[in-house]
Structures are given as structure tokens and as C-alpha cells.
Write a structure and sequence with these properties.
This protein has 7 helices and 10 strands. The protein has 247 residues and is α/β, with parallel strands linked by helices. It has a domain at 12-105 and 171-231: P-loop containing nucleotide triphosphate hydrolases (Rossmann fold, 3-Layer(aba) Sandwich). The strands form 2 sheets. It has a 6-stranded mixed beta sheet with strand order 6-7-8-3-9-10, with helices on both faces. Helix 3 (111-121) runs parallel beside helix 5, helix 4 crosses helix 5 and helix 5 runs parallel beside helix 6. The protein is globular and about 50 Å long. The relative contact order is 0.20. The protein binds adenosine-5'-triphosphate (ATP) and magnesium ion. Adenosine-5'-triphosphate (ATP) is lined by residues 21-22, 29, 31, 49, 51-57, 224. Residues 12-247 form the ABC transporter domain.
Length: 247
Amino acid sequence: MSAPLPDTVPVIQTFGLSKVYSPGSEAEVVALKGVDMRVGRGDFVAIMGPSGSGKSTLMNLIGCLDTPSTGSYLCDGIDVSTLDAEELAILRREKIGFVFQGFNLLPRMSALENVAMPLGYAQVPVPERAARAQEALAAVGLAERAGHKPSELSGGQQQRVAIARALINKPPILLADEPTGALDSKTGEEILSLFKRLRDDDHTVILITHDPEVAAHADRILVMRDGELHEEPGSGRRDSGFGGATP
Ligand SMILES: Nc1ncnc2c1ncn2[C@@H]1O[C@H](COP(=O)(O)OP(=O)(O)OP(=O)(O)O)[C@@H](O)[C@H]1O
Ligand SMILES: [Mg+2]
């Protein structure tokens, strides 16, 4: 895929992004209303907001898992609406790592095999996969646990395996939907410091959370209310140079 763009180009930029589920039917839901969002490289952004306000809907669009009803989305400068299914799959693989609350690890596989999984799709030669997966596990502090199955790991360790898997292709964007929701506060802190290290490494991290203490770790806090995205006034420890959400 194309070479990385200069730092001045937002990694994520949306214009009037809207999503209507089951349009025109009785079950119609307007989940997202004209979201304008700009996120820069090396930004750590938290998205908060009540249940049903549209956070996961937005995350699915940013992750190219779903398409908007109206509006557009540039991922690392690429208008995703111009891509066909195969090009989208490649973009997802190269640009985006996902971490979900439920971990989604395969129970019969070891930590190492779970982490190496995406490399199969990326056509990395077999001998290289184990080495890369071992390196990714070491980066999340789990080098010694590579041979363990998920059931033999703690919740926080399983979440770190999921993060290592999300990062195995070194994607510039990490999307995490409630990654600390199922964890005790100490383990949650470990995950958050891992995200901060990724941010310092120039990854862009977008984190959905219900917990204000978790959100306080981010550089910016965006709040979703009834399908509209707002920048939390006073949030933003670091100035990304990008204006944020709707004014
Ligand atoms: N596939 C779908 N089909 C129809 N409606 C949907 C679908 N997915 C979500 N919705 C609706 O869209 C709205 C936004 O849902 P979304 O999952 O984005 O909320 P959320 O902010 O992530 O909530 P939570 O904090 O509970 O995870 C809700 O009213 C939800 O019922
Ligand atoms: Mg959700």
C-alpha cells in the first residue's frame, strides 16, 4: 500500500459521518449524526458516552467493519469509499488493530499461536511468524507465557495477548472497545500504560470506555451523545494540533 503520509495529515478524518440502521423500516435507528472527527498520529483519544449513544457504531466505521449511510472517512489519507472489498481487507490489516472487550482469543491455541494468527493472512513466511509473535508477546510483558492457552492466563494477561495480536502487523491505528471493562483496576492500569507506550511510539490509540478514570489517561476525551460527537472541554493534555470533533 502507499507510503505513510506526512505527520500533518490526520490519521483519521471523518466528514459528516452518519449511520442509520434499517432505514425506512419501523426498526429504523439513527445511530450516528454527522460526525466530524480528526485524530492525528500519536494521539491517544478516549471516547465516552452513555450506552446506545453510538460509540461502537463509530468504532466499526473507523475500523472499516461497516460502511456509513452518508458522509466520508479518510483513513491515513485514503478515502475508504473508493476501495473494493479486497482493498479494504488489506487496509484493515495494514492500518488497524482491534481489541475487543471479550478478548476473542482461540481457546485451543497457545498465546503464541493466537498472536501469530494475523500473520497467516498477511502471507508472512511460516518460520518468521513464531519469531514475530514471540517479539510481540515480549512487548506486552508476556514472553514467559507464550506456550500457555488462554484458560491458563489471567484476564489481564489474556487482554495483553489480544493486544499483542492486534499489534502484530504493526498497524498505525489501534482501536479498543472497552478493553479494560472486564479487568480489575490494577490490571486495567497495566493495559493503560501499555497504550501510553504505544502512543509514545507514534501509534494512534482510540479507546472506548465508560470509566472517567480510564478516560483521564487519554490526551483527548470525546463524548458521544445521541449519535453526536463532542470534544470534552478542558480535555487534551497534549496538543495534537487537530481541532477535534464538532465545535
Ligand atoms: N446492527 C444494528 N442494527 C440495528 N440497530 C443497531 C445495530 N447496532 C447498533 N444499533 C443501535 O444503534 C444505537 C447505537 O448503538 P452502539 O452499539 O453504537 O452504542 P454504544 O454507544 O456502543 O453503546 P454501549 O455503551 O452499550 O456499547 C443503539 O440504539 C443500538 O440499539
Ligand atoms: Mg458499544
